[in-house]
Write a structure and sequence with these properties.
Elements: H1 2-25, E1 31-35, H2 42-58, E2 62-66, H3 74-81, E3 89-94, H4 100-103, E4 115-130, H5 139-148, E5 155-157, H6 163-175, E6 181-183, H7 187-195, E7 202-205, H8 206-214, E8 219-223, E9 249-257, H9 262-277, H10 279-287, E10 291-292, H11 297-318
Parallel strand pairs: 1-2, 1-3, 5-6
Antiparallel strand pairs: 3-9, 4-7, 4-8, 4-9, 4-10
């Protein structure tokens, strides 16, 4: 018995040394930032900016691995949930990650228990837009038109449960209407249909919507922040567009698998903070409509709890059913 206890004690001590050493030397090989969506979207854009700078900060290679598929990005997220907690497989995704338990059945992981929160990365408001042929120049005029002829209007989202989806649901409730919201599989098809006038209202990240608004291919009615943003000074706030003030952002974060050693998490978080402080990174994110926004792991965990409570209420109030 004494030999067993001694062996266990020695094994524990050795494991502790290995974990500490791995955190001290991390990363010693390529790190994958898993993005559970195709290349080219807002999540992918944020991930590539961060990966490039993390590589410089850590003097190592960080790659973006696009693993699209499943409701709310569950294929890519599940890859990370099942990965070794050694810091070489991380998840970079958007707020939709924490809405999936309220929207989808049979998610193969627990979004809280099966992941280690590392840091917030960025956030940004959404652009609320309509088709160019709709005769409204602000949200008040738009919803007045919808009330008069509701059968002529269809709303849409790039993904069921996305920040854009929830923002449209909030605006619907505040306007007192119950128009159908169609869920597309990605921003591309949705944007094509609003440009052609087949749908009439969306809320979408600035990365994909702002260039279309600036070229008059869609009509921007408002931005979901309390103040106008520097990169789009001509787009009014929701309040300036004739409705109650709305402060609603799409945010992006960095997670690892569960059971990551605390010193390894601290190592990655510190490198992330350093990367996000870089003026070039801040400028590149701002160009895409995002603000660099880091946090401690504990702050990120509390932020997730708060956001999940908010999203749960929006989904319940809107009567959105689980798929």
């Amino acid at each position: 018995m004494k030999k067993i206890i001694l062996a266990a004690t020695l094994a524990s001590a050795v494991l502790g040394c290995v974990v500490s050493a791995s955190a001290d030397t991390y990363p010693s090989r390529t790190v994958s930032l898993v993005v559970p969506y195709p290349a080219g979207g807002s999540v992918d854009g944020v991930a590539r900016i961060l990966a490039q700078k993390l590589g410089e900060v850590a003097n190592a290679t960080f790659i973006v691995e696009n693993r699209a598929g499943g409701a709310g990005g569950t294929v890519g997220a599940n890859t990370v949930a099942k990965a070794n907690p050694d810091g070489y497989t991380l998840l970079l995704t958007a707020s939709i990650h924490v809405t999936t338990p309220f929207l989808f059945k049979n998610i193969p992981y627990d979004v809280v228990k099966d992941f280690t929160p590392i840091s917030l990365v960025a956030s940004g408001p959404l652009v609320v837009s309509t088709a160019p042929n709709v005769p409204a120049n602000n949200l008040k005029e738009f919803f007045d038109l919808v009330r008069k002829s509701p059968e002529k209007y269809t709303f849409a989202t790039s993904g069921f449960g996305s920040a854009g989806h929830l923002a449209v649901e909030l605006l619907k409730r505040r306007a007192g209407i119950n128009t159908l919201v169609i869920a597309y599989k990605g921003a591309g098809p949705m944007l094509n249909d609003i440009m052609s006038g087949q749908i009439q209202l969306i809320a979408d990240p600035m990365l994909s919507s702002l260039p279309l608004a600036q070229s008059k291919k869609i009509k921007a009615l408002a931005i979901t922040s309390l103040k106008r943003v520097e990169s789009a000074p001509d787009i009014p706030t929701v309040q300036e567009s004739g409705m109650e003030p709305l402060d609603f952002e799409s945010w992006y974060g960095l997670w690892g698998p569960k059971n990551m050693p605390a010193d390894l998490v601290a190592n990655i978080q510190q490198k992330t903070v350093e990367a996000l402080k870089d003026p070039v990174v801040k400028k590149r994110l701002a160009t895409l409509g995002f603000e660099a926004k880091s946090s401690t792991p504990d702050e990120f965990a509390k932020f997730i709890d708060k956001e999940m409570a908010t999203y749960s209420k929006i989904i319940k109030d809107a009567g959105i059913k689980t798929e």
